[in-house]
Amino acid sequence: MRRRRAPRGKSRPACSGCALPLPFALDHINLWLLRDGKDRVAVDCGIGLDETRTIWNRIFDETLRGAGLSRIIVTHYHPDHMGNAGWLAQRFGAPLWISESEYLTAHAQFEARAGTGSEAVARLFAAHGLDPERVAGVAGRGNAYRKIVCAPPSSFVRIMEGDEIEIGGNAWRVIAGYGHAPEHCALYCARLGVLVSGDMLLPKISTNVAVWPTEPEGDPLRLFLRSIDRFTALPADTLVLPSHGLPFRGAQARVQMLHAHHAERLAEVLAECAKPRTAADLIPVLFRRSLDLHQTFFAMGEAIAHLHHLMYQGRLVRNRGADGVYRFERPSK
Fold first, then answer.
1. Would the pTM of this model clear 0.70, i.e. be above it?
2. Domains of the chain (ranges plus CATH)?
């Protein structure tokens, strides 16, 4: 457990954090505790495993020292953020604060409803050229969400774009973001000069932006790039507290870097599509390393997202062959 603190200029910081482990290549998530009188507000929860709950118990005993949780704020439904929300809510009797889209998606994922199940993902990936062996591997994942997420609470407090949430005498403004998740909520406090960015703004990597079977014709990359532009309006010295990686300053520069990164990737995809290409064909172009099944799961969704973005710009055309597989290529002049 690595502890992080956001300075306030006083002896009792308004925000502290810790990094909890993840059983993936992305090996940690940062969680934040905001001071709220004698209690705390937790922002995100870690995946729902015994290991992370043991760390939470140590935080209760060694850091909170008897303080409770007055609220649980979850930036979005992904398991590393939502995983322990139900457990924490039950333990403290604390309400879950989350956007409606993320709350409903968490329940759909937990119950494998509305096209969220592994079979639906496998069908989507097969239609985009993934080989039968890996398609079978994706289908065989079962309900991976339920394995690492406690049962989500049966009620919630809705937060949405522009809301001002009062926590410990400070106002935290909700900044909604799209593309990575249905209705991701970052939190910005002007008085403290702090942005809890969740997964929308990370210091070294670009967050996953993918097409999923619930919205198979979507253009999430357009939504993501448009969303992160909103962070450029924040003061230059804003301290960004991301969900992965170290805190940093310079949101404007980071947004520019993310735009440049995706522009470079889009150019590579466009060049590769001089001949018809599937999303599966483009995985080695976008990810120049060996990928396991878990990483392939996200890589496929991201490859489709880049292809769709170019398609909707009119820079690629899509055709579906007799084999039922989508292929993309540059339009003939």
1. yes
2. 2-114+141-267 (3.60.15.10)
